Structures are given as C-alpha cells and as structure tokens.
C-alpha cells in the first residue's frame, strides 16, 4: 500500500463544495447568525479558490499556497479578526444546525458563514502542503479548517492521512473514525464516497498495526456501500497476501 493513496480525488470532491447552505439556516437555528451582510466579496474568493484548485491539480502547490490561497485566507482573517463571535463554515444545513447547537450549548454567540470558502482555503492549503510532504504545515492548516468546520468528514480524513504519513497510528485511526461518524452531515451525493475514504483510512492503519482481520472488516464495509470499489478490492488482496504469509 502506498502512503498518500487516500488523498486521490479529494480536490475533485472539493470542487463541488461551497453551496450557500446557511442563508436558510438562521430561522431554524436562532442561536447562530448568518453572514448575510458579509464583509467579503464571496464571488471573488470563489474565483481565487478555483484558481488554487487548478494549480494544485497541475502540481503547482507552492504557487497555490503563496498566491490565491494566501489572498483568500488574508481576506477572511482580516475581515473577522476582531469578531467576538464563534465563526463556523458549513457545507449543508444539517451541519450548520449542529454548529448552532454547539454554540448555544456553550452559551456563545456564533455566526455560520453563508459561504464555506474560508475553511476550504485552509483545507486546500493543507492538502497542498501534504502534497509537498510538508507535514507540520499540512497538519496546522487542516486544524485551522477544522476549527471552522469541525464536522467536515473530508477535512478529518485529510488530517487522518497526515497522521498516517507521520506514522502516528493512534491519532490517524481516531481521526478516520471521526470522519466516518460525521459523514452524515455532508451533502447526500458525497456521503458514500466520504464514508469509504474514512473506512479505507481505518483499514490502512489497522494493517500497519497488524490487525488484519479488523482491516478486512473495514474494506468489506466499504464494499457493502460501494460495490466494486477498486481500492478496497486491491487492499483486500494485499491483506490476504499478508495473512497467507503469516500462516506459513
């Protein structure tokens, strides 16, 4: 199994990210406000994010980090630098509502941004750093994304991948388990893919921990919801080979 295989396709998933979910969240979640009067030009930030994603797909990771992503992050950090409210970014209405509930439970005033672009910028920067094998900066940036979107399965799995590459197996396993647990908050059309990413991540770690039977269960769980998933099939073949060697 090659390290980093879990990351394939994450930028493509991110391309579909960014629906304006939260403008509808405020009536159902009065504890949180929404950024209807945003101080940021959302359309301009989305163009920069699109540029960054294209650069990352082309392998121009440093250009993406130092160019459009730096611009987007600076814009949002400057706009909300003095806010006394807890800021969240959400992709879907259920995700926005759970953030509202957390803030209410903690007796905090919160804002759920109507565009999740700020969190996505941190995520893409973390992804780009990971592609450059700069794991400390990747981890830092992904944790910034998760501070804004703590229930984002994609962000969690990418952080799990960083821990995996650091050979921090306990943190990787815990993070992939969390990613699986919050996939329900993603857009419906992404949930199966995100669950499989999280399951394959757990399987990878369990193989490294020599827990081959448990790893097999994770890959089979992915196949149960996504029949024909080639990566799980390939990994199961790898695990069977290890089991055969162990029996000799």
TrEMBL record:
Alphabetically list the UniProt keywords.
Answer: Signal, TPR repeat
Signal sequence span per UniProt? Answer: 1-25
Q: Which InterPro entries match?
A: TPR-like_helical_dom_sf (IPR011990), TPR_rpt (IPR019734)
Q: State whether keyword Signal applies.
A: yes
The TPR repeat units are at 119-152
The record's annotation in PROSITE patterns points to: PROKAR_LIPOPROTEIN, TPR
Q: Which SMART domains is this protein grouped with? A: TPR
Protein name, as recorded: Tetratricopeptide repeat protein
What species is given as this protein's source?
Dyella mobilis
């Amino acid at each position: 199994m090659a390290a980093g295989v879990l990351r394939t396709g994450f930028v493509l998933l991110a391309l579909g990210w960014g629906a304006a979910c939260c403008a509808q969240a405020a009536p159902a979640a009065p504890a949180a406000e929404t950024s209807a009067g945003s101080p940021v030009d959302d359309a301009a930030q989305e163009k920069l994010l699109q540029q960054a994603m294209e650069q990352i797909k082309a392998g121009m990771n440093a250009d993406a980090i130092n160019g459009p992503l730096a611009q987007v992050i600076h814009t949002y950090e400057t706009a909300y630098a003095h806010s006394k409210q807890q800021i969240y970014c959400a992709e879907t209405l259920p995700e926005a509502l759970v953030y509202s509930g957390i803030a209410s439970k903690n007796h905090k005033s919160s804002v759920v941004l109507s565009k999740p672009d700020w969190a996505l910028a941190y995520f893409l920067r973390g992804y780009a750093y990971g592609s450059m094998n700069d794991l400390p900066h990747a981890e830092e940036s992904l944790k910034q994304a998760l501070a804004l979107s703590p229930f984002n399965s994609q962000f969690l799995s990418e952080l799990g991948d960083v821990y995996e590459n650091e050979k921090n197996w306990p943190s990787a396993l815990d993070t992939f388990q969390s990613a699986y647990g919050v996939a329900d908050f993603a857009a419906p059309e992404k949930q199966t893919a995100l669950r499989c990413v999280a399951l394959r991540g757990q399987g990878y770690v369990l193989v490294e921990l020599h827990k081959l039977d448990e790893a097999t269960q994770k890959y089979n769980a992915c196949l149960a919801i996504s029949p024909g998933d080639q990566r799980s099939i390939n990994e199961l073949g790898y695990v069977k080979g290890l089991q055969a060697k162990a029996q000799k």
